[in-house]
Amino acid sequence: MRVLGIEGTAWAASAALHDTERDETFIESDPYEPDSGGIHPREAAEHMSEAIPSVVETVLDHAEQTAEGDEAPIDAVAFSRGPGLGPCLRIVGTAARALAGALDVPLVGVNHMVAHLEIGRHESGFDSPVCLNASGANAHLLGYHNGRYRVLGETMDTGVGNAIDKFTRHVGWTHPGGPKVEQAAADGEYIDLPYTVKGMDFSFSGIMSAAKQAYDDGETVEDICFSLQEHVFGMLTEVAERALSLTGTDELVLGGGVGQNARLREMLASMCEERGAAFYAPDPRFLRDNAGMIAVLGAKMYAAGDTIEIEDSAIDPNYRPDQVPVTWRGAAES
Ligand code: ATP
């Protein structure tokens, strides 16, 4: 089975082909990079309207060239329905509906955050892991129970990447800030910053205000970046450990663009090792926003008969992972 996925919830205009028989995923992406400031929804949507047609065309060409014998180049079209920026999602939804109609194949509506989780589960082969999604606009722990991915803990304010990006805008760095923080942290030393975990939830607003203030007060940016990583990733690791402990699960997967950070991966790997749990972090191309994860989950949903009619395929900018009935696990799973 070959599923074409389309992603475009915020900054990555991306299309992919996932081939289940060959277990291969071909991804073509075109990122939106703001000249200054953060992601501007109108500019991001303009980027989607220009870039989505060309990334889709590249993937369609690839699908035509790699189909063998009487194999169909595409069996279904999957797309990110949300969560994300409304103006961007509308363009992705329109492109997916038009493509599914033109190819006369079924349409699959994918929750972007569940896709961040499922790519880790797919790649690791873990059966029922807890997932830490550490992305730009989100930060939460998910665990499977009774047919849904339940939110075990989450940010009480901004997503983790967006919080880091707010600090880097304050110091005048261009978007995205996360990789620059990681680089600067290599030369930094520890200073105290607020650390806010409340049970299974956490908050980033206090630490980000304190980091900006520390910068204005003359602390070195390297020390602040080092300490931001230690505190923020320490918070995520503490709650991830509590999620493993409370659910009795011994598998953890990482999802989301912040998961590309080596220090976060190191902290999670060491926590898992200490408690005898298995840890898996996907390859960076599957961590940052990408259509590969949409195509992979789209293929599982399509195999389970979880397709949607055009009239039911409206996008949802606030689509939560626990709203999704998990139809693809178990017998139907490919
Ligand atoms: P979501 O998936 O929640 O919609 P998003 O669309 O912003 O989020 P992602 O690709 O998951 O996209 O994550 C992007 C975020 O990852 C940005 O905030 C960026 O600064 C951060 N990031 C990227 N690389 C690193 C890194 N090496 N260290 C820390 N953060 C990073």
Task: Describe the 3D structure.
The chain is α/β, with parallel strands linked by helices and 334 residues long. It folds into two domains: 2-116 and 286-332, Nucleotidyltransferase, domain 5 (2-Layer Sandwich); 125-284, 2-Layer Sandwich (Nucleotidyltransferase, domain 5), CATH 3.30.420.40. It has ten helices and twelve strands. The protein has helices at residues 41-66, 86-103, 112-124, 160-170, 178-185, 205-216, 221-247, 262-275, 284-287, 291-303; strands spanning 2-7, 12-19, 24-31, 76-82, 107-111, 130-134, 139-145, 148-154, 197-198, 201-202, 251-255, 278-280. It has a five-stranded mixed β-sheet, with helices on both faces. A five-stranded mixed β-sheet has the order 8-7-6-11-12, with helices on both faces. The structure holds adenosine-5'-triphosphate. The site of adenosine-5'-triphosphate has 26 residues, from α4 and α5. Residues 9-11, 84, 112, 135-138, 159, 161-162, 164-165, 176-179, 182, 256-258, 260-261, 288-289 line the site of adenosine-5'-triphosphate (ATP).
